[in-house]
Write a structure and sequence with these properties.
By secondary structure, this protein is an alpha/beta fold. Among the domains are: about 140-225 and about 305-405 and about 435-460, Dihydrodipicolinate Reductase, domain 2; about 230-290, no CATH class. The protein has 15 helices and 16 strands. The chain has helices spanning about 20-30, 45-60, 70-80, 95-100, 115-130, 145-155, 175, 185-190, 190-195, 195-210, 230-240, 275-285, 285-290, 405-425, 435-455; strands at about 10-15, 35-40, 65, 85, 105-110, 135, 160-170, 210-220, 305-315, 320-330, 330-340, 340-350, 380-390, 395, 435, 460. Helix 5 links the parallel strand 5 and strand 6 (about 135). Helix 5 (about 115-130) packs antiparallel against helix 15 and helix 6 runs parallel beside helix 10 (about 195-210). Bound molecules: nicotinamide-adenine-dinucleotide. Nicotinamide-adenine-dinucleotide binds next to loops. Belongs to the Gfo/Idh/MocA family. GO terms for molecular function: nucleotide binding. InterPro entries: Gfo/Idh/MocA-like_OxRdtase_C, Gfo/Idh/MocA-like_OxRdtase_N, Gfo/Idh/MocA_Oxidoreductases, NAD(P)-bd_dom_sf. It holds the Pfam family GFO_IDH_MocA_C.
Length: about 500
């Protein structure tokens, strides 16, 4: 992590200028400008690149150079890039991460680390060869409610964890959004088990300080897609009303133009013109590369699942039962952790119901806009963590208020990402900062789950050939100076030793 630059500010390049990169660009030009400089962009779409270069100029950094992905190495050298931030579609991560490391830059990469076992090997090989740093931005760890659950488990209050039951519900606006663009293709996103659930599998491994060993998965595409009962019923209703087949994209749906006549305000569609940012980033830029952001969720070609159920074994004996649903009437999650001395339960409502405005619009990701959506009395917006020991009464654990997106996780994460390399890592007894090994551990569940969905059989994680051991050291080291009241946490992986089988010959 040595800087190429003598100044105290590290130079960052951002690869992939879509939705997610905004958070990082904003942090570099704003709250963390004293420790970070924006050196360059790497983006193939000239339209999106222009949106971001204009934004940077407005924020006092004119003329940020943009490079094509093929010129990544040249960019790192010519622009003296210390760290590449990767916010591109999931299947492109491994190549960009490995190339950046070999070109002499550290990497900050969005989840999921990669989508395949081969991608894991590509990254673990490059880390082993270069010994450079790869930071995984697992922002969910930093959400105060998730941090508090970690604290409870690590304190030993509920004893040794025996099992975890974890249910995640995406609602019919946010959930539907994964079926409109590249996420709908398993070879680009890894499906929701990799793209979305890698957040959740990381949380479980981190909460219980353990590694997955075996995965059995069931699931399917049951609501979205052109052959689901919902799609068939809709098509029959449209035909009875004399309407032509649904348009291939949602733009026009809010006001009934461009083929949406007779279906104005369709609740499953996204009209890119209704949101200035979506229009500028995607609709106005699509003639450059044909990336269509608003495909109909009932169109053909979807290769991912919208309902998933998993049974996962962990190394020290705990089991996880997990479910993901992408078309719920509300959004949030429920986690129950059973231990030898008691039980902890976390319940989170991010959006109690989906209510659309008069133009048929809603916020896509409710967790990214906390408080923007109030629930009702029956399902109020908010979170609750309850712990109960055997033979004791339940007690509610206070959850500190978070600030900003993703349950308050984004803002604290950015401090670790940008300040730690310059000011030194903060002492964090919860060990929230994540590295590439945490990323491998998280995608190992989804990749195994995808293999299990394909074969109908349980899959041993060891058979994937990930190129590195994902075991979590146990018992964990007690952080220096930790008193008995301080939680015990497993050490965060800096540079674990790759296995002697980096090419994955065990697969
Ligand atoms: N942690 C979170 O909460 C969170 C939230 C949203 C997205 N993400 C992650 O961020 C990443 C980006 O998601 P998004 O919604 O911004 O996607 P997006 O489609 O909006 O943006 C991706 C951008 O990458 C560009 N691109 C494609 N291939 C490239 C390449 N080889 N090199 C450089 N640029 C390339 C595309 O043209 C596009 O501009 C994904 O991995 C996603 O999982 C994380």
């Amino acid at each position: 992590m040595t800087s190429q630059n003598p100044s105290t500010r590290r130079r960052y390049a951002v690869a992939g200028l879509g939705h997610r990169s905004h958070m990082y660009v904003d942090a570099i030009l704003g709250d963390h400008a004293d420790v970070a400089e924006l050196a360059a962009f790497c983006e193939p779409n000239r339209g999106r690149a222009a949106v971001y270069t204009d934004l940077a100029a407005e924020r006092g950094r004119p003329g940020v150079p943009t490079y094509a992905p093929a010129d990544l190495e040249q960019m790192i050298t010519a622009e003296h890039v210390d760290t590449l931030i990767v916010t591109t579609p999931d299947a492109t991560h491994a190549d960009l991460v490995a190339r950046a490391l070999r070109a002499g830059a550290d990497v900050v990469v969005e989840k999921p680390l990669t989508t395949t076992a081969q991608g894991c090997r590509t990254i673990t090989d490059a880390v082993a060869e270069t010994s450079r740093s790869v930071v995984m931005t697992f922002n969910y760890r930093y959400a105060p409610r998730n941090s508090e659950l970690r604290r409870v488990i690590a304190s030993g209050e509920i004893g040794e964890v025996t099992s975890v039951h974890f249910e995640w519900v995406l609602d019919s606006v946010h959930g539907a959004d994964y079926f409109r663009r590249w996420h709908r293709l398993k070879d680009v996103s890894g499906g929701l088990l990799v793209h979305k659930s890698s957040h959740h599998f990381d949380l479980v491994s981190w909460w219980i300080a353990d590694a997955p060993t075996r995965v059995y998965a069931r699931g399917g595409l049951k609501v979205y897609g052109d052959t689901s009962p919902v799609a068939r019923e809709m098509a029959e209703r449209d035909a009875a009303a004399g309407l032509p087949p649904r348009p291939a994209r949602g733009t026009g749906s809010a006001d009934g133009t461009r083929g949406w006549e007779g279906r104005a305000g369709d609740r499953w569609a996204l009209d890119l013109r209704a949101d200035e940012r979506l229009k500028a980033l995607y609709l106005d830029a699509e003639h450059h590369d044909g990336y269509v952001r608003d495909q109909d969720v009932f169109s053909a070609g979807i290769t991912i699942e919208d309902n998933l159920a998993l049974l996962v074994d962990y190394e020290r004996g705990a089991t996880l039962t997990y479910s993901l649903n992408a078309h719920g009437p509300w959004e949030g999650y429920r986690v129950s952790v059973n231990g030898t001395k008691g039980r902890a339960e976390l319940e989170v409502v991010e959006r109690g119901s989906v209510e659309l405005d008069e133009r048929g619009r809603s916020i896509l990701d409710p967790s990214a806009n906390p408080g923007a959506w109030e629930g009702d009395d029956v399902r109020p917006f908010g979170d609750r963590l309850v712990v109960q020991k055997h033979w004791g009464r339940a007690r509610e654990v206070p959850i500190p208020a978070g600030i900003g997106g993703h349950g308050g996780g984004d803002a604290i994460l950015l401090q670790d990402v940008f300040r730690a390399p310059v000011e030194g890592a903060r002492h964090d007894p919860l060990g929230r900062a994540a590295g590439y090994l945490d990323g491998v551990r998280a995608v190992a569940v989804g990749i195994s789950g995808n293999a299990s969905l394909a074969s109908g059989q349980p899959v041993d994680v060891a058979d994937l050939g990930l190129g590195v051991s994902i075991s979590v050291p146990w018992p964990p080291e007690r952080p220096a100076g930790a008193g008995s009241a301080e939680p015990v946490v497993a050490p965060h992986d800096a540079h674990p030793t790759p296995t002697s089988d980096p090419a994955g010959a065990t697969a």
